[in-house]
């Protein structure tokens, strides 16, 4: 009898807290909702494009932040230079003002440290050649909507120009991202730079002592030594036996977002899985997740990844802004004298044990009996998916974590 009462009490408490948090929760405007949805489509088309590139190992980017960088191009562009942005974001019907305020609203919502308890530092800068002049209006509105700084840079001394970019990125991420790029090829245009640091705060922490060294098989013949953290708990999980992969969802603090792992059963190329990746497929998988006891082992690592997105965005349809003879970015400079030569998108992500206290009530109960094993010791894809807005905060793949090569034990 007392058990029923206890359950009732717990249910009551949960219901009440859900009600209060729902009241405090701001509802996203209509256009922000549309843009959130479309930024998720952007996530997959951009990912597919990047995965085709040879010699790229780890991938990591924030579709929401890429969307706001596109927003900046629309803000500085005229005519088709600007309208191509809307086409990519499938937002042709959204008015300019709504595009900018909607993207700003979305980014503010998902990166709010208070409601999400997330560590997500985002610094954005637009560099222009020293010959140009930034228009005041643009400087103001790009700061207001997209929190962009502006700076002119002299590439006559390329080495020190690159150094100052990297120093800015390191400083704005508290040293977590020491380098955005080693070199800049095209130095005659505008350069967008996003420098980020993201650290998930687990809804249920790992025990800091449940960490040890294990091998991560980047391929069948190459193993690196990484730290792995372990815990058993109740998670949303699905075994896709047809496609031979496991899907695990680990909620982050306040459960407003979740870290979703897509891991093939076996070591090998991620090609097949990557070709399947679409928003629709993701929704299908999400719909099949079921609360399951899972013994989770994942790398306790930090990864720093930097991409130059310029050519990928061009492939997705941003052909005018990046073309010197066609670009009209005259809202930035007042003249048609600028094109977009680089889009550096760099993030550091750190997976650690920290999070909210564990739910100890399930320990020693039947609920955790015979857990499924989720052992992330070979390449996988992951997403930080936002539950409230349905947007994708990050998408990436871990193919080669940092670590020393391990000797073959044969
Ligand atoms: C683009 O937006 C329209 C509505 O504005 C929607 O019906 C359509 O499905 C969207 N396309 C994609 C690929 O998301
Ligand atoms: C938020 O994060 C901080 C720092 O990691 C932690 O101390 C705190 O318990 C968290 N609070 C909630 C409500 O998640
Ligand atoms: C830029 O546009 C012009 C005119 O359409 C075209 O001929 C040229 O190939 C484009 N340049 C690049 C680098 O794509």
UniProtKB/TrEMBL annotation:
Keyword field contains Endoplasmic reticulum: yes
Localisation: Endoplasmic reticulum lumen
Protein name: Serpin H1
Residue intervals of the Serpin domain: 44-401
Main location: endoplasmic reticulum
Record's function text: Binds specifically to collagen. Could be involved as a chaperone in the biosynthetic pathway of collagen.
Annotated GO MF terms: serine-type endopeptidase inhibitor activity
Species in which this protein is naturally found: Scomber scombrus (Atlantic mackerel)
Signal sequence, renumbered to the chain: 1-18
UniProt similarity note: Belongs to the serpin family.
Alphabetic keyword roster: Chaperone, Endoplasmic reticulum, Glycoprotein, Signal
SUPFAM superfamilies: Serpins
GO biological process terms, semicolon-separated: collagen fibril organization
Pfam families: Serpin
GO cellular component: endoplasmic reticulum lumen; extracellular space
């Amino acid at each position: 009898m007392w058990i029923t009462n206890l359950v009732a009490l717990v249910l009551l408490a949960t219901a009440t807290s859900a009600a209060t948090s729902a009241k405090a929760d701001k509802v996203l405007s209509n256009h922000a909702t549309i843009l959130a949805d479309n930024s998720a489509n952007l996530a997959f088309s951009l990912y597919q494009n990047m995965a085709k590139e040879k010699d790229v190992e780890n991938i990591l980017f924030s579709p929401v932040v890429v969307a706001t960088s596109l927003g900046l191009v629309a803000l500085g562009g005229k005519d088709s230079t600007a309208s191509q942005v809307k086409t990519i974001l499938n937002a042709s019907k959204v008015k300019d003002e709504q595009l900018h305020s909607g993207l700003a609203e979305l980014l503010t919502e998902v990166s709010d440290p208070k409601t999400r308890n997330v560590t997500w530092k985002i610094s954005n800068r637009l560099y222009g050649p020293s010959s140009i002049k930034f228009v005041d209006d643009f400087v103001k509105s790009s700061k207001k909507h997209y929190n962009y700084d502006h700076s002119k840079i002299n590439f006559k001394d390329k080495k020190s120009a690159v150094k100052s970019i990297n120093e800015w990125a390191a400083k704005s991420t508290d040293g977590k991202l020491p380098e955005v790029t080693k070199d800049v090829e095209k130095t005659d245009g505008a350069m967008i730079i996003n420098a980020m640091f993201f650290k998930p705060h687990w809804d249920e922490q790992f025990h800091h002592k449940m960490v040890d060294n294990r091998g991560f098989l980047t391929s069948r013949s190459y193993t690196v030594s990484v730290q792995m953290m372990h815990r058993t708990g109740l998670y949303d999980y699905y075994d896709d036996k047809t496609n031979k992969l496991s899907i695990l969802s680990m909620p982050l603090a306040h459960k407003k977002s979740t870290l979703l792992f897509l891991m093939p059963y076996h070591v090998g190329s991620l090609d097949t899985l990557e070709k399947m990746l679409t928003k629709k497929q993701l929704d299908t998988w999400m719909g099949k997740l079921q609360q399951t006891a899972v013994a989770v082992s994942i790398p306790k690592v930090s990864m720093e990844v930097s991409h130059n997105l310029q050519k990928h965005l061009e492939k997705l349809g941003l052909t005018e802004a990046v073309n010197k003879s066609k670009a009209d970015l005259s809202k930035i400079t007042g003249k048609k004298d600028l094109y977009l030569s680089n889009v550096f998108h760099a993030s550091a992500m750190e997976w650690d044990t920290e999070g909210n206290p564990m739910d100890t009530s399930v320990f020693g109960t039947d609920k955790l009996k015979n857990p499924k094993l989720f052992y992330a010791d070979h390449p996988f894809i992951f997403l930080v998916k936002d539950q409230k807005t349905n947007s994708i905060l990050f998408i990436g793949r871990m193919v080669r974590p940092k670590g020393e090569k391990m000797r073959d034990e044969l």
